[in-house]
Design brief:
Bound molecules: NADP nicotinamide-adenine-dinucleotide phosphate
Shape: globular
CATH topology: TIM Barrel
Distance between the termini: 38 Å
Structural class: alpha/beta
Oligomer: single chain
CATH class: Alpha Beta
Radius of gyration: 19 Å
Number of domains: 1
Helix content: 25-40%
Mean pLDDT: 97
CATH architecture: Alpha-Beta Barrel
Largest sheet: 8 strands, parallel
């Protein structure tokens, strides 16, 4: 396993982060424990969670399972969790008000069985709460030692840049880490988020490197597995609903077969090969799925291979229309 610095922090993390969204959902406690152990044996010290995992109807269960697994080795780990999703019956049991965040962090720490998390993510942008209210709440949590570094997920670049400006103005601990979606199938982050991260030395731990299963080799124009998130989960079904995703999946599988490397390994390695990415967050429902994701940490993707894989899907259009100026 390789390790790298987490953005501008002095913390070293493994180049693969394991996402625990399946804990207590797609993976029962025993399978979750086996995956955790396998990750630790592979050298992973970095685990991502959220208060809402494994889903709104079982919110908190993933944190609780992760908490039970990390107890004996907490100080060797870098743990992240998130706030925003609806975690209770009340209308205020969600979003990014100071009121909700202060309660949510206590509940997360209790379930995780720890007195602090390294990274605390605002899981989405909240249109109904002033950004400075949420950022000030984060600052207070940093000063109280309950969270060590503030972070955001699924924010647009202009929102991230505004947050950095506000932190500089108020002398708050600025954002340390971003968590965008990023894979060969979803490349929007290349336009503004990854360049912003490079320019400001923000860590990036991107999620869904396998497109939630799309790039695992089991999907194609006509091919569908018996079971899978893209078939069973309405949100993911919609996210990857267009036929072009399945055409890409087929092209990608063919490419990987030609190289005799598991598609999951190539999909994760391609994300890792981007110099703005600190660590992709990999997900799995069992040990068998996990193995090829871990193998990506050992794969050296040279520039020619990287270019070949990149050419399989269209690069997103640039951030402004004066594109001829870049040539
Ligand atoms: N910030 C956010 O909004 C956000 C959103 C999503 C995820 N995340 C984080 O990122 C982590 C990873 O996200 P993700 O689960 O979407 O990542 P992913 O690696 O793109 O997708 C993982 C899924 O792909 C399928 N898969 C993986 N390996 C496979 C294999 N070898 N063979 C066949 N199928 C395979 C499995 O789903 P099936 O078996 O169902 O096909 C598995 O659950 C999560 O655990 C979470 O921590 C964050």
């Amino acid at each position: 396993m390789q390790y790298t610095m987490l953005g501008d922090t002095g913390v070293e993390v493994s180049r693969v982060c394991f996402g625990t969204m399946s804990f207590g959902g797609d993976a029962d406690r025993q399978t979750s424990a086996a995956m955790y152990r396998r990750c630790r044996d592979a050298g992973i010290n970095f685990f991502d969670c959220a208060d809402v995992y494994p889903g709104a109807d079982a919110a908190g269960v993933s944190e609780e399972i992760l908490g039970s697994l990390i107890r004996s080795e907490r100080d060797q780990l870098v743990i992240s969790t998130k706030v925003y999703g609806k975690v209770g019956p009340d209308r205020n049991d969600q979003r990014l008000s100071r009121r909700h965040m202060m309660r949510a962090v206590e509940n997360s720490l209790q379930r995780l069985g720890t007195d602090r998390v390294e990274l605390y993510f605002l899981h989405n942008f909240d249109d109904l709460t002033a950004m400075e209210e949420s950022l000030r709440a984060m600052e207070d949590l940093v000063r109280a030692g309950k969270i060590l570094y503030p972070a955001v997920s699924n924010w647009a670049a202009w929102q991230i840049a505004s947050a950095i400006g506000a932190a500089e103005m108020h002398n708050w601990r600025r954002l340390a880490c971003l968590q965008p979606m990023y894979s060969l199938a979803k490349r929007q982050a290349e336009v503004e988020i990854l360049p912003l991260a490079r320019a400001r030395n923000l860590a990036v731990i991107s999620y869904s490197p396998v497109g939630g299963g799309l790039l695992s080799g089991k999907y194609g124009r006509k091919a569908r597995p018996g079971q899978g998130r893209l078939l069973d989960n309405a949100m993911y079904k919609k996210r990857y609903g267009e036929g072009s995703y399945y055409e890409l999946a087929e092209r990608f599988s063919r490419h990987c077969a030609g190289r005799a490397v598991h598609p999951v390994t190539v999909a994760v390695a391609w994300v890792m090969a981007n110099d703005a990415v600190t660590a992709p967050i990999v997900g799995a429902r069992n040990l068998q799925q996990l193995e090829p994701a871990l193998a990506a940490a050992e794969l050296e993707m040279d520039p020619d291979w990287y270019a070949e894989v990149s050419a399989l899907s269209p690069a997103p259009p640039p951030a402004h229309d004066r594109s001829e100026a870049a040539e």
